[in-house]
Amino acid sequence: MSNAELIWDLVDEHREEFIGLADRVWGMPEICYTEYRSVEEHRKMLEQQGFRVTDNVAGIPTAVMGEAGEGGPVIAIMGEYDALPGLSQVANIAEPQPVEEGGHGHGCGHNLLGSAAMLAAAGLKDWLEKTGTPGRVRYYGCPAEEGGAAKGFMVRAGAFDDVDAAVTWHPSGVTQVGIANSLANTRIDFSFTGRSSHASAAPHLGRSALDAVELMNVGVNYMREHMPPDARLHYAMLDAGGVAPNVVQGFAKVRHAVRAGDLATMQALVERVKKVAEGAALMTETTMSWQVVSAVSNMLDNDPMKRAMFDNMQRLGAVPFDAEDKAYASQIQATLTGADISNEYLRAGVPEKDDTPLCDFIVPLEARGVSMPGSTDVSDVSWAVPTIEARVATHAIGTPGHSWQITAQGKAAAAHKGMIHAAKIMAGTAVDMVRDEELLAAAKADHAVRTAKTPYVCPIPEDVHPPLQPRPE
After folding, report:
1. DSSP letters spanning 256-269
2. 168: Cα separation from own chain's centroid
3. pLDDT tens-digit profile of 287-321?
4. Given 84, 243, 345, 362, which is the most exposed site by the fewest CB atoms within 10 A?
């Protein structure tokens, strides 16, 4: 399909540069707040494209912002580039094979996410210049989406205070306007301190912090019957106290994640989890302390922006995958279960299609699938400014998120086509927000109604700061 609009032509002019950026970031997977090489790649590309660059956004060394244009509304286009631990995988094959045993990998497609977002920003920059339209575009390079809540810290620091609207996307198995059903989420570390002793000679003198952690986990599990159905509770052992069974462990630490459909419900559940922890400490005669690590809000919708984005999707059409793309996607699907594939259609709310390894359709705006929400720090931006998110097909239908299969497909031709498509959708939506004053006003009015009853309060306590990591030697 030939581009019918100037903005899409401008995006296409930069496609090879940004495919290269996506592939370079894929090859240097870095996790939560360690994205020093990835942010440097993004910073260099911003400079190359002629953006005015701001480093250390919100005091975070792996966050960057580039701005272009003058006057007019400010449109933010948000990208990410953090990877996940343990998902190292050789590209373009259909069997698990790590590049580095135990290494990191882009198992959520953020190498594509950041590159497409900056490509959209570059296209919008060129469009503003060529058309002489007043307006500013900002690319926000955001680290640590996977558990680090960087955007929440950025919002709290005022990085989005003068933004009029924000646009982003995420790699997916289907192409659709994002549905605002993400969960508010907080991660809290619970530390228990007891008294070490010889587990055989003097067990009566010890007070086991490990027992306290185990009792807390049991108590939290009993909460599951007595909480809203959309709430979620998870935990991970951070410090079990040691590996010697003949020692009564004097210290242990566990991280609990609490999710719910809105901030108020999440905070109520957090208070209950704290009481369980207090009870575990009381039963074991240990002391307990807790510390919030990160937190994100639930996502807010924006109907005018959803309609604008959907219009761009319809005019652009489905991602132009070819037979070779579909052949590789079929190989990936062979590693999945039927339930994996059905699950994708259930979430999208559309009938399942046979012999369709890659999405050749656009999910209708009115489709309502089965709610299977996660959490994202994009949500905090959605409370600060009108925000919209696209989901664009880049991998085989049914591919689970956070999997080796996502990493394997992260440099495939289909992934590159999907990211270019996503950039065009975002850039087209951003152009609409710049040139249509009524649309932007309607988006702001929608946002004002949604936040009127419950104004935004950042869920990250003021005394909690980003868990910054040192630059690797």
Report:
1. EEEEESSHHHHHHH
2. 10
3. 999 999 999 999 999 999 999 999 999 999 999 99
4. 243
